[in-house]
User: Which sequence fits this backbone?
């Protein structure tokens, strides 16, 4: 009977400690700054500006993150196209023109 009582107390302590560790890890990760390189896009505090040299009438119809680049879907001002932009520098990495 003593062994059962001891096992119950030890398991109760483990549950409390495990829950506290889990809450601490969640809190730490929620408040940690986002890495700018390798694991995400750009930290929320970081900003960049870039000028897209596109014909008049061009509009952005979509935006997606692809790896460590931003893909902008553009329509108007010619054939539909997708432009890949480096979010750290604002430079255009590549361009895909879609055939009509």
Assistant:
């Amino acid at each position: 009977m003593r062994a059962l009582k001891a096992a119950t107390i030890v398991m109760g302590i483990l549950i409390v400690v495990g829950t506290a560790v889990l809450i601490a890890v969640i809190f730490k990760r929620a408040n940690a700054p986002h890495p700018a390189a390798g694991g995400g896009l750009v930290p929320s505090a970081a900003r960049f500006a870039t000028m897209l040299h596109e014909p008049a009438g061009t509009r952005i119809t979509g935006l997606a993150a692809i790896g460590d680049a931003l893909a902008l879907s553009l329509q108007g001002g010619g054939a539909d196209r997708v432009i890949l932009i480096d979010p750290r520098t604002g430079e255009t990495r590549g361009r895909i023109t879609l055939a009509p």
Observations:
- The two ends are 80 Å apart (CA to CA).
- The mean pLDDT is 83.
- Residues 1-32 form one domain.
- The chain has two domains: 1-32, 38-100.
